[in-house]
Design a protein that fits this description.
This protein is mainly alpha-helical. Strands 2-1-3 form a 3-stranded antiparallel β-sheet. A hairpin with a 3-residue loop joins strand 1 and strand 2. Helix 4 runs antiparallel to helix 5. The protein is globular and about 50 Å long. The model has no long low-confidence stretch (mean pLDDT 88).
Length: 201
Amino acid sequence: MEATNAPFVANFINSDVETSGQRDWIKKMPAETYAKLFSVLLHYHDLGFWGNDSEAATDNLNQVAAMTKLLEWIRGESHPVSDNAKKKFENVMQRVGEEIEMELPEEVKWQRYAENIDKILMFWDKAYNNLMNKKLEEEFFLSKNSILRPLGSLADQWIPYKKVIQLPAYQEVVEYEVAHISDKSKINELKIKRFQRVIGG
């Protein structure tokens, strides 16, 4: 799937008419397929080109809505969230942006997990910081925090952290780490190293 198809993918996922007949199959998609959908939906439409800012802003917001729906499908309807749903989410996040399927070292997998969660949140933040007009505010603002609920409940065992390192000439490097919620020693170590939680930090 091409990243330029992001608006069409988002419209399909968001459309109850389009997905109602296939919803059960869609919800059971393997992690690899979910990861490819996230990879496409994370294509941000820059504003300030060709005079179509309102359309670009709408596409970005629709893609946030589609990612929210994907997270809800992975989460499922069980309360609390099942371990299987969390494992699937972890697998998906480790694969987002993967161009070639290959076995990665465990450390790299978890770094990608944290980085991809951060990418989703940065996309969400950027999309909602560019509500171009009153119509978009009315249409999307009430659903702004919807993505945080499924994302927070799926990532409440393996907590993603990041640290931004400022370099000369206004460059920066971002490091990612993960700690299990029960590993107090690792959490304290990350705090000492000035890592911050990606969600709810």
